[in-house]
Each structure stands twice: as C-alpha cells, then as structure tokens.
Amino acid sequence: MLLATNLFEIISNATYFALAAAALWGLYCIVVIWTRVGQKRFKTEEEQDTYMDDVEAMLTAGDFEGTLEYVDGDNRAIPQMVELAVSNRELGFKRARQVMMDRFQRDVMSDLEYRLSWVGTVIKSAPMIGLFGTVFGMMGAFQTLSQGDVNPQELAGNIMVALITTASGLAIAIPLMIIVATVNIRMAKMQDLIGAGLTRFFEAFKAGLTKVAPKN
Predict the structure, then answer these.
(1) 3 state SS for 110-153
(2) 161 CA to centre of own chain
(3) What is the pLDDT of residues 26-47, one digit of tens each?
C-alpha cells in the first residue's frame, strides 16, 4: 500500500513537471521567434522606404562600395541580404540573387520555422501529457475503491490529479494556439515587408550591374 502511494506521488509529480517543462519550452520558443522577427524587420514600412531610397540611389549609380559601407553592421534582414548580394556581385545578378535568397531561407526563415515547429509539438503533447495524468489519476481512484474501506481524502486526491492534469494540458495548449496564430501573422507581415524591399533592391542592383558592366 505504501509502495503504491509513493509510486502514485512520484508519477503525479513527474506529470506536473512534464507539463511545466512543456509550457516553459513553448513560451521560450515563442519569445525567441517574436524577438527575432522584430530584430530582422524595419519597424514601419515608411522607415524601410526611406532606407531603400538611399540604397537605390547608390546602387543605380554603381556605387557598390558606398552601399556596402551603408549597410555594414545593420543586423536587419534587408541590409544583411543587400550586403551579401553586393559582395557577390562578381557572380552576376542571377547567381548573387540566388545566394542571397538561399542565405535568407537558411539563416532566418528556417530558424523561425524550426522553433515554430517545436511550439506545435508542445501544443500537441501538452494535452496528451494531461490525458496521461487523467488516466493515471482514475486508475488510482479505482484502486482506492477496490480496497473496500475507502479513504475519502485519498480518493479525492486521485480524482484531483486527474482533473488538474487535464486542465493544465488544455491551459497550455489553447493559449499557445492563439499565440502561434499571432506569431504567424507577424511572420507573414515581416515577409511581405522584406519582399517589398527586395523588389526595389533587385531592380536597383540589376541597374547598377548594367551601369558598371564593361563595354565591348
């Protein structure tokens, strides 16, 4: 009897710990994604347009060195991609563009999608962990009933574990689902904003390469 009680307490505590760990990991990934998106985009479209006006002016004039100095040290996505493409301009427009887009997908989007997939895993696993606690709690309750001389406090404790773990799993998954939807919108806006900036960059970059191309 004592062994069964100790085992019940151990598994109950392990279930609570697993739920807490899942919640913390999901929230950590959300915070990292939210912060990284904020670091990689301009705060407003107007701010990005002002920045791209300067970049376009230098690129169309063929001033690649000036462009590199202008974007140097800026950790936002567009300046970093501009720097990468301009640094690889000797590869030609198409190849430099491909190198830049591959780096963006690998270094920015893949990292965000990787962390977002972890949040999805937490959303799916938290209710399952809660369900495990529910099943285990009900097993303990039936075991208590099978003993004949039922201790109301022990029975209530078993049922409480079942209810708390179920509620905890849902309390973790439901808010994370809402937060993920918000994060997806934020990522989509970032991609739209970056896409608009890159459209302007590609046109100016191509014009700059044509301007400095050797004449036959």
Answers:
(1) HHHHHHHHHHHHHHHHHHHHHHHHHHHHHHHHHHHHHCCCCCHH
(2) 32
(3) 999 999 999 999 999 998 999 9
At residue 83, the pLDDT reads: 92
Residue 147 token pair? 């003993």
pLDDT tens-digit readout, 114-132: 999 999 999 999 999 988 8
User: At residue 6, what is the residue type?
Assistant: N
CA distances from 142 to 128, 160, 161 (A): 21, 13, 13
If 0-12 CB within 10 Å is exposed, 13-18 middle and 19+ buried, where does residue 11 land? middle
User: Taking the CB of residue 8, how many other CB atoms lie within 10 A of it?
Assistant: 20
Place of tokens 């689902």: 177
CA 49 – CA 166 distance, rounded (Å): 50
116, two tokens: 């977002």
pTM of the model: 0.80
Distance between CA 30 and CA 209 in Å, rounded? 41
Kindly report the number of other CB atoms within 10 A of residue 14's CB atom. 14
Selected residue with higher pLDDT from 34 and 160: 34
